[in-house]
Amino acid sequence: MRYTFTAFDNFGCRQDTSILVTIEAPEFTYTDSVAFDSLFTFINETSWATEFEWDFGDDSPFSVEDSVEHEYETDGKFRIYLTARTDDGCEDTISHVVIVLIPKLKLENIPNSFTPNGDAFNQVFKINKDDLSGLEFFECYIYSRWGKKVAEWHSTEEAEVGWDGTVNGGRDASPGVYYYVIKAIGYNGNKEERNGFIHLFR
What we know:
The chain is 5% helix and 45% strand. With 202 residues, the chain is mainly beta. The termini are far apart.
């Protein structure tokens, strides 16, 4: 920023002087430029300013905090602006782009049969890994037709391993029809419950 000063002496002579004041650009860091989540942490690394204003690029209210967390509600590409100001009125703005990819809740390809008979084919009942990628919370309970619980999962990691056709990891479960109850919450906040039948063949 350039400032110009004008001075007059007692005889009316004028003298102009210009001073160029260089302001260090503001700067901030953040968790990732591309995130499979909606929550970002923006860390202000500007040391010379006293006031700050964040524009998150998604029509949400501005923030005047120093460093902030911000959660996006939709997928997309967003440009974040940080404006820094001094008490003397100097200001500068910097921006960065982040891409938000929020995995969607989908439970579309749940198998209805498996054959844990030792032939290395279709040995476990499990859910497609792609269907689990958008889940923040997941649990599944599997019951016999008499209502006895034979397996349970409390994470997507357990679901990826699957049910091997045993009773709670012990003896082999009998051939027949079993019933599952799945409860899931996606990263996008959607909730879903699925119930269905599994045919166990040996």
